[in-house]
Amino acid sequence: MTATQLLAYITVALLLQVLAGVAFAVWRHPAAAGAPLSASVDDVVTTAKGAWSGWRDFRVVRREFEDAAQTQCSFHLQAVDGVPLAPFRPGQYLTFSLKVPDGVAGAPDGARTITRCYSLSDRPDAAGYRITIQRARSPAGRPDLPPGLASSHFHDRVLEGDVLQVKAPSGHFVIDSDASVPAVFIAGGIGITPMMSMLRWCLAEQPERRVHLYHGVRSSGDQAFKRVLEDLAAAHPAFRLNVVYSRPASGDLLARDDQHLGFIDLALLRRTLAPGRHQFYVCGPPPMMQSLVPALREAGVLAEDIHFEAFGPASARPTSPASNEPTAAASASLEVRFSRSGRTMYWDGQDANLLDFAERHGLAVDSGCRTGSCGTCQTRLVSGAVTYADQPDQDIPKGHCLLCVGKPQSALVLDA
Ligand SMILES: Cc1cc2nc3c(=O)[nH]c(=O)nc-3n(C[C@H](O)[C@H](O)[C@H](O)COP(=O)(O)OP(=O)(O)OC[C@H]3O[C@@H](n4cnc5c(N)ncnc54)[C@H](O)[C@@H]3O)c2cc1C
Ligand code: FES
Predict the structure, then answer these.
(1) What gap in Å lies between CA 349 and CA 334, rounded to an integer?
(2) Ligand 1, atom 30: closest residue by C-alpha
(3) pTM above 0.90, yes or no
(4) Is 353's C-beta closer than 6 angstroms to any atom of ligand 2?
(5) Is 150 in the pocket of ligand 1 (CB under 6 A)?
(6) Which residue from 236, 258, 234, 227 is spatially nearest to 245, judged by alpha carbons?
(7) Atom of ligand 1 nearest to the CA of 121
(8) How many other CB atoms are found less than 10 A from the CB of residue 291?
(9) Ligand 2 pocket check for 117: Cβ under 6 Å
(10) By the number of CB atoms within 10 A of the CB, which of 42, 62, 71, 189 ranks highest?
(11) Helices 192-205 and 226-235 sit at what angle, rounded to 10 degrees?
């Protein structure tokens, strides 16, 4: 055998060894083949093959309460088809189609289908998803009004083993990939869910990054993920947890410097954050969003460094400072024709969006999130142009519009 032949044999043997190693790794961890969980978030976006269109069946494999008061329950989901899940961007949500009992409308089969969005509350894992749902009670002082339809359905009727219809992860409220800029997560109540996903991703993939979490709750009784977060803070020196109690129970405030009384505000952030640039992520109830987001802007934080998501209706969103919405649309009187209903009305700028406008005039239109996220209110645009204050999460097909976040830019004919 010549030296060249020997070298060729050695090279081939080495190559075979490497190939066998790769094949073994893929066999042991099938998810790794399509889901590089240690990739940067930007890689995750480009490699998110396997995201599906339409509804896919997921089985609830585990339920688990996350707070002492048992008002926030996690549901662990696995795809019924068993195909590994594409990675999502930490901060994104799932959309659910739910058949819930309908005591009011009296549908023929006693049920109606509704659409709701729920944020993924853990970091990407090809084996399954986790969402965490807060039970929405009747509004304070209005026991005559029914409690939340979807959240009550999840808490009272969705059991381990049940199958749910789910749309692929989506949403623009996602963690950035620049580990050199500290991340500040500000959550009010159940607004903690997207933060759990972003936080766990940061701790795993960017362990050196400074990460601060401010969680505003009434008391430790409704503090979701309390133990998990305390353990993470103890284990990760770069992670700082601050809990802010508005109505602390006895024993909640232990004179520790990571526990505070009141609400999350600029003064607290100034006291506890080092000077310099931060990426702010805010998700909470309307009063928190409406005070904190403008306060951050007024304090000189760049618009591109403030990311926020509202769980409620679009009107709960603070006005985007970057909004490029033409003002004429808000003031001009424009004809809006709903062709299928045979109704013509005039847009006078009173309503926040076309969905509110339609409902105020007595037209029933299907809706889900009312934040441009789920696509339920998507309507064919026969003629005219619709404008959006902020780019909706949902991709809008050509010739269609989203009523819940859209306003007319000209006279409209809608197929509704
Ligand atoms: C992107 C996104 C992510 C989200 N992520 C999460 C999450 O991770 N976890 C979570 O818990 N939620 C999340 N939400 C909110 C969630 O989608 C639902 O809005 C929430 O669960 C309430 O829905 P529901 O069907 O239970 O309540 P609904 O039936 O929609 O009712 C909402 C509230 O209105 C009250 N109500 C009922 N009738 C009336 C009436 N006539 N007048 C006034 N009030 C009335 C109800 O009592 C209830 O309090 C998210 C929302 C979005 C848009
Ligand atoms: S109601 Fe969800 S996109 Fe309009």
Answers:
(1) 9
(2) 148
(3) no
(4) no
(5) yes
(6) 258
(7) 8
(8) 16
(9) no
(10) 189
(11) 20
CB 378 within 8 A of CB 396: yes
Say if residues 78 and 164 touch (Cβ distance below 8 Å): no
| Binding site membership of 114 for ligand 2 (Cβ less than 6 Å) | no
Helix/strand/coil for 158: coil
Instruction: Name the residue with tokens 């950035």.
Output: 176
Q: Which atom of ligand 2 is nearest to the CA of 373?
A: 3
Q: Which amino acid is at 344?
A: T
Residue whose tokens read 């799932």: 94
CB 371, CB 350: distance < 8 Å: no
Show pLDDT as tens, one digit a residue, over the chain (416 residues).
555 565 556 555 545 454 444 343 333 333 333 333 333 444 443 334 567 888 999 999 999 999 999 999 999 999 999 999 989 999 999 999 999 986 554 455 678 788 899 999 999 999 999 999 999 999 999 999 999 999 999 999 999 999 999 999 988 899 999 999 999 999 999 999 999 999 999 999 999 999 999 999 999 999 999 999 999 999 999 999 999 999 999 888 777 778 999 999 999 999 999 999 999 999 999 899 999 999 999 999 999 999 998 887 644 455 444 444 444 445 569 999 999 999 999 999 889 899 999 988 988 888 877 888 788 899 999 999 999 987 787 779 999 999 999 999 999 999 99
